[in-house]
Design goal:
With 159 residues, this protein is an alpha+beta fold. It has helices at residues 7-35, 78-104, 112-129, 141-151; strands spanning 39-53, 56-71.
């Protein structure tokens, strides 16, 4: 049951954990796109821009979502695009495995923070791989992979 005692953790989840999970996810897309020689721009949040840090743009509603846009791949092959689209979820999975390893090796404690981080990472993996288009017509990662396989094209930006 949700009580007033749960509000602080809810705020931590919403304003700290979820944006970090989003950043990990987008970092996966960015790293793999750069490995294939792409020019990359990525964003955390929606709404007006708060500030830029290199290719990263932080929006006012930084806790809402993220996206990555790449262009001019040196290795412009179907498998490269698929790898880029799947890399966000792969990075989320890698971080989950690292956290679980560190907990089982008693390097970090079992805390609600890490539990929630893992929970939101799994949530992110599930919904990013589900093939759908959002209200703006932007594809999920799963839909982008489907588009590449079906039409042989990349779809930008990726979520």
């Amino acid at each position: 049951m949700f009580t007033l005692n749960d509000i602080p953790m809810f705020l931590v989840n919403f304003f700290v954990i979820l944006p970090i999970v989003t950043l990990v996810h987008e970092a996966g897309h960015v790293l793999v796109a750069r490995l294939f020689g792409g020019k990359v721009k990525f964003c955390i949040g929606t709404g007006p821009t708060l500030f830029h840090i290199g290719p990263l743009e932080i929006k006012r509603k930084y806790f809402m979502e993220g996206w990555c846009q790449y262009e001019e791949l040196k290795y412009n092959k179907t498998w490269a695009h698929i790898s880029i689209y799947l890399s966000g979820s792969l990075f989320n999975l890698i971080v989950i495995l690292i956290i679980n390893f560190l907990i089982t090796s008693n390097t970090i404690p079992v805390t609600l923070f890490f539990y929630q981080f893992t929970y939101f990472s799994i949530y992110f993996i599930f919904f990013s791989l589900m093939p759908f288009r959002n209200d703006d017509g932007r594809p999920s990662d799963g839909m982008a992979v489907f588009d590449v396989l079906r039409y042989g094209k990349s779809v930008d930006p990726i979520d």
